[in-house]
Amino acid sequence: SGIGRKILKSADVALVYSSPETAAIPALIAHHLNRVPYVLLVQDLWPDSVLQTGFLESNAARGVARWSLGFLDQTVCKRAAHIVVTAPGMKAALVSRRVPEEKITVMFNWVDESVVFPQTGSGMLRSRLGVPAGALLFAFAGNLGTAQGLSAWLLAIQASQDLTDLYFVFLGEGAEKSQLQSKADLLGLKRTFFIDPVELSEYVHLAAEIDAQIISLTNSPLFHMTIPGKLQSCLALGKAIVASVAGDSARIIVDSGAGLVAATGNSAEIEKIIRLAHREGQAALAARGSLGRSYYLDHMGSRTSSALLVDVLRSAAISGLKGPR
């Protein structure tokens, strides 16, 4: 629109929230016509995120998409004053595409910190499930879909049924919920529950009653270089994590000390970390949660990440002033 063109023309710098990457086209045009520098904030790498969705079934369609989106990606990255990515693996991927390393900054996403923070539990969840105060409760909250690979967790839970003071709850909806419930019944799982999702504002209170949060993803190359928002939420809530993930997510969980990690889809390894977490007990798991909370505040919190973004934008604006406008 005319208003948009005027705003871009007078701007010192433009921030492009590039998901999808076609959002960068107006900034690319403004840069060409008016020399306005722009910064890309990349949430999903293109064409990777499109090609791995499964929506493009034919080889011809995938080939066209790979070429056209790849060309767009190269163009907007080349013309950008700077690129901000939300995971180290995304930076490595761009460097492998010959984007200069010094042109890329990693800035983690943050959560709604007015809602997602350690809170006091009411005891309602444990009371509803019949979980004693001294027993351990591990919880998965979120989408129960194919990308989560939760079937392996059910096998691991079956193998650890001898831990009679350990309970599991899967809270959410998704394409595989009914299948997972049926499988749990077939496996004869005890102390494992499936409950309906709740609003985030309610879940943060329920999370206060659990001892460890479960994070699980399948072994997709895309998940190796992206960080699910669920990880930030788990860290910000200050609860220990037991996870079957790979790539950046796995490194963060281990480096922060927040939890234990198993290979994706490997029920034997998942059983191992379940037993290790059970052996650690409530006090040690609470300490892990505190480490995770500290890591979030130091590396992912809104103050840290927003200050980093402001510095990048300021530098881009200054560099733009040096060139012709």
What general form does the structure show?
A: elongated
What does the largest sheet look like? 6 strands, parallel
Order the strands across the largest sheet as they lie in space: 7-6-5-8-9-10
Q: What is the SS-derived class?
A: alpha/beta
List how many beta strands DSSP finds: 10
What gap, in angstroms, lies between the N and C termini? 21 Å
What radius of gyration results from the CA coordinates? 22 Å
- Kindly report the average pLDDT value: 87
List the total number of helices.
Answer: 14
Poorly predicted runs of 5 or more residues: 49-56, 64-69
Kindly describe this structure.
The chain is α/β, with parallel strands linked by helices and 325 residues long. The protein is built from 14 helices and ten strands. Helix 11 (229-236) crosses helix 13 (267-300) and helix 13 crosses helix 14 (302-322). The chain is elongated, with a radius of gyration of 22 Å. The two termini are 21 Å apart.
What are the defining features of this structure?
6-stranded parallel beta sheet; 10 strands; 14 helices; about 325 residues
Brief summary:
The chain is α/β, with parallel strands linked by helices and 325 residues long. 50% of the residues lie in helices and 14% in strands. The strands form two sheets. Strands 7-6-5-8-9-10 form a six-stranded parallel sheet, sandwiched between helices. A four-stranded parallel sheet has the order 1-2-3-4, with helices on both faces.
